[in-house]
Amino acid sequence: MNFMRELGQFMMMGARAHAKWEMEISNTILHDRKRLVILGLLMIPIIIGGVAFAGNISEEVNGVLPKLLGGHKAYSPAFYTGGIFAVSILIGMGAGLITGCIGAGGGFIIAPALMSAGIKGILAVGTDLFHIFAKAIMGSVIHKKLGNVSVPLAVVFLIGAILGATAGGLINRILYEINPVLSDAFITTVYSLMLGFLGCYALLDFLKARKAPGGGGDAHGGKEEGVEMGGLPRKIQSVKIPPIVKFDADLVPGGRGISWVFLVASGALVGLAAGIMGVGGGFLTFPIFVYVLGVSSMTTVGTDIFQIIFTAGYAAISQYAIYGFIFYTLAMGMLLGSLVGIQIGAMVTKGGPGITIRGFYAMAVLAGFVNRFFALPAKLGAMDIIPISPGLGAALETFGVWAFFIVIGIFSVWVIGTFFKNISVLKGEEVRS
Predict the structure, then answer these.
(1) Contact of 92 with 334, CB cutoff 8 Å
(2) Among 57, 105, 165, 168, which one has the highest count of C-beta atoms within 10 angstroms of its own C-beta?
(3) Would the pLDDT of 69 be above 90?
(4) Helical (H) or strand (E) element with 244
(5) Cα–Cα distance, 254 to 277 (Å, whole number)
(6) Which residues contact 309 (CB under 8 A, 6 or more apart)?
């Protein structure tokens, strides 16, 4: 029981750390004119694609764009339509609202949402990775964090991350080549397990907070970790398999050191998660560094930003883009939607009750779990693994899709409604600050 509780805390800490990264990246992009211009330039191929599609330009011209964007000639259409772009913006906005309002892992719902919208699992993973990579490159704040990045720590960690991302991408591609339904079933199972556990923990945390005196406290919860170190990190750092990587010399007298073996293994786990799930691996880096390896949170923050850029970039390009598994139009739409959603969500947090926000987070994650869990029977039935009629499988999958989008829709309406309801108060706070 203690192990399950600690694992839940581990995942929640990772979700919060990744959300903080997303919010910082969003603020950096939207408060910099040069980055906004770059974002506008990234939209040009989509605009050209829209003109080509709407104007029914010659086959030669219209056939060039899908090759550039990746997907149409390979496995799935990546051409532009207004409907596709609008859906991608809404998906990105929903994830952004969760991230900004709750301060925990809205990115977890992106791949399930894309799959529910009819995108193949492997394409959803590749597109999500590209979306994270584009966001990280555009909003990079490494120059502000260089003092907190341990270069030796980051380089050795990235060796493992690259190996793990390669393995994750290879697994997804092999399963897809064997059977596209098998690939979808695998990705769906991984998401079901992760979202099911995280959702149950978040729900129990919410119910416990309701009973606690004061009713819920802070929406973001959790305390910041400094340079303290628990029993597990001490044991790991006591293993002296050379070479030893040194770090935190400016925070702890004499610094700390850890064997490269543990860094490479941790990087491989993060890279594997990124390669299979498409979430960038950032939600694992923070808790692994702080709670397992014993790295201070100050060093961890900078290193986490550093690794997301390279892990997501490597996985997106080398494991998905060159094979045609990137839906460029969707990625850019999600980027636009998430930037707006994060800003609205962050402002709503100032006026919204913390306990309500935590409840919505539990509902959103559990809705993602229900969505993927109810999609599994149809996929397993299609592969003759379980005996189920196509009609029943389709009905269960439809129920999961509706349950997911209804919950996310209600949450989004509540957040946006709260935003407009309190807009005068929020403006007053901005003026005072």
Answers:
(1) yes
(2) 165
(3) no
(4) strand 244-247
(5) 38
(6) 133, 136, 137, 140, 142
